[in-house]
Backbone:
């Protein structure tokens, strides 16, 4: 399921933010034994012009909005590195 989830996260972020860089990593292995047994833990690094002039909280909100219901069903924890192109 995690490979499918990585691809779904990637698809949604690419569609919503049209990033110039996008990396989605399943980090569940780092959380084995924690709540949800290490499943649904991801890290995203996304560079998008959509983030230009935005504070980090607004950037994170844009990521959450792009992921929609995945934040409630499928993603237990999400680490976000959201940057504007330099």
Residues:
């Amino acid at each position: 399921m995690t490979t499918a989830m990585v691809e779904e996260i990637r698809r949604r972020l690419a569609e919503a933010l049209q990033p110039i860089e996008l990396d989605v990593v399943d980090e569940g292995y780092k959380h084995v034994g924690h709540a949800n047994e290490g499943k649904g833990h991801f890290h995203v690094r996304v560079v998008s012009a959509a983030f230009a002039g935005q504070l980090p909280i607004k950037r994170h909100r844009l990521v959450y909005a792009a992921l929609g219901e995945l934040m409630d069903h499928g993603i237990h924890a999400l680490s976000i590195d959201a940057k504007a192109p330099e």
Summary: The chain has one domain: 2-83. The beta strands are 21-26, 41-47, 77-83.
